[in-house]
């Protein structure tokens, strides 16, 4: 999906950069965060992150590796890799944050399901109307 340089950063430099990057998101509204994500990440990077979050949430809901990989159109190896970390409770912070915030992960999975089953809506006016209506329910 995404290409990453094979050159590694020094661990200390990586930690400093990660802290600065997270501070960028810490004090902004969700709308501004969305704009920031849209501007800083490519479409494939955004999709990758969305799918990774979906995998974690689906694992938490007890879905099988097969069901997750077929639903999200990701490889079994990707799901198994994330499942490995999930079993080691390495996503507890993510899951806690999801449960604490106004993030409705059931609705997130429903919308993701709609998009994956139906595909992207056609171009033009009213393109996302079906999605807006499903979110209002």
Automatic annotation (TrEMBL):
<dbReference type="InterPro" id="IPR010921">
    <property type="entry name" value="Trp_repressor/repl_initiator"/>
</dbReference>
<dbReference type="InterPro" id="IPR000831">
    <property type="entry name" value="Trp_repress"/>
</dbReference>
<dbReference type="InterPro" id="IPR038116">
    <property type="entry name" value="TrpR-like_sf"/>
</dbReference>
<dbReference type="Pfam" id="PF01371">
    <property type="entry name" value="Trp_repressor"/>
</dbReference>
<dbReference type="GO" id="GO:0043565">
    <property type="term" value="F:sequence-specific DNA binding"/>
</dbReference>
<dbReference type="GO" id="GO:0003700">
    <property type="term" value="F:DNA-binding transcription factor activity"/>
</dbReference>
<protein>
    <recommendedName>
        <fullName>HTH luxR-type domain-containing protein</fullName>
    </recommendedName>
</protein>
């Amino acid at each position: 999906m995404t290409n990453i340089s094979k050159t590694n950063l020094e661990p200390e430099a990586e930690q400093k950069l990660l802290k600065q990057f997270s501070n960028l998101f810490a004090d902004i509204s969700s709308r501004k965060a969305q704009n920031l994500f849209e501007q800083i990440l490519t479409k494939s990077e955004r999709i990758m992150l969305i799918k990774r979050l979906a995998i974690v949430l689906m694992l938490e809901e007890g879905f099988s590796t097969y069901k997750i990989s077929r639903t999200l159109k990701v490889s079994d190896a990707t799901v198994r890799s994330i499942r490995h970390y999930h079993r080691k409770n390495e996503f507890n912070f993510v899951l806690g944050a999801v449960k604490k915030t106004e993030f409705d992960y059931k609705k997130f999975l429903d919308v993701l399901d709609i998009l994956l089953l139906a595909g992207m809506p056609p171009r033009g006016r009213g393109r996302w109307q079906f999605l807006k209506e499903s979110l209002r329910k």
